[in-house]
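Work Package 4 report. The design task specified in the project plan requires that, given a folded chain encoded as structure tokens, an amino acid be chosen for each position. We show below one input record used in the internal validation round.
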């Protein structure tokens, strides 16, 4: 029932990954789960989208390792603009919630990229229901 409730509200997700194919696959996965998804292919583009549309995104999913601006740096900038917008950090490396700089963000979860397909939709649902 909760999943249906979230889907009917058409939550807006910003999906950020410098690997375009991964961002588009993530967007397809989340669109199939009932979310409206906007992709950005680097941290600067994501920040610009967020600044142009303040309050438009219910949640951010970002890769950690990107050229120019890391996922943690993006989350810090998002936090300074909107401390209530949750962020999920995805990484191909083993990261934890104790990574340097995470305390100055609204990162709600760290997810291994290998778990994105299986765990991301449920994790988003859990985070959005807790808001």
């Amino acid at each position: 029932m909760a999943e249906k409730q979230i889907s009917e509200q058409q939550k807006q997700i910003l999906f950020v990954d410098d690997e375009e194919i991964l961002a588009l696959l993530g967007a397809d996965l989340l669109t199939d789960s009932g979310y409206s998804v906007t992709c950005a292919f680097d941290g600067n583009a994501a920040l610009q989208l967020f600044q142009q549309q303040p309050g438009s995104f219910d949640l951010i999913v970002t890769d950690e390792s990107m050229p120019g601006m890391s996922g943690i740096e993006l989350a810090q900038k998002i936090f300074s603009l909107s401390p209530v917008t949750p962020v999920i950090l995805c990484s191909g490396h083993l990261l934890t919630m104790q990574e340097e700089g995470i305390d100055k963000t609204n990162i709600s979860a760290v997810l291994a990229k290998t778990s994105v397909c299986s765990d991301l939709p449920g994790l988003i649902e859990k985070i959005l229901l807790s808001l």
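The helical segments are 2-9, 20-32, 43-52, 71-81, 116-129. Validation will be extended to a larger panel in the next phase.
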